[in-house]
Design brief:
- The structure is a single chain.
- The chain contains 3 helices and 5 strands.
- It is α+β, with helices and mostly antiparallel strands.
- It has one domain.
- The longest helix is centred in the first third of the chain and has 16 residues.
Length: about 140
Amino acid sequence: MIRKLSEFPCFLKLLNVNGTPAHPFMINQSFLESLEYSISKALANSSNKEERTYWCDGIIVDDLNKEQELTSSILRSKSLKAIAIIPKEQYAESDYRFDLNIFFGKEAMSRLRNGLDLENSIPEINNSNWIALDLSSKSISIQLK
């Protein structure tokens, strides 16, 4: 019996419409939740006493459902703009939405290009040198590995 190669699942490859290999979208809820947790822990470990009173309660990415456009934008700019919910203590402030700039380092860019899990590109939580919180402009910048 002759069988087609395509009948063997181990040989199947997912392809995009243009014929390039398709990878799972790595800016997903799991990554955003890990990033949220890591931001909270890094702020708690900050050397700045004021920053230690803040924590992250969520990250909002516009157009999360537009995978290809979002990925293309990140690959071009090496960054992603989002909103971080950064309350102080127990939601003591009424306005806790911060502009979030996520900068992708070499490891994160490589992982994104290859469809690998981005959670491994989040820096260690025992320090906060990868986070810049600006309370006056209500912005936060983070640098992935």
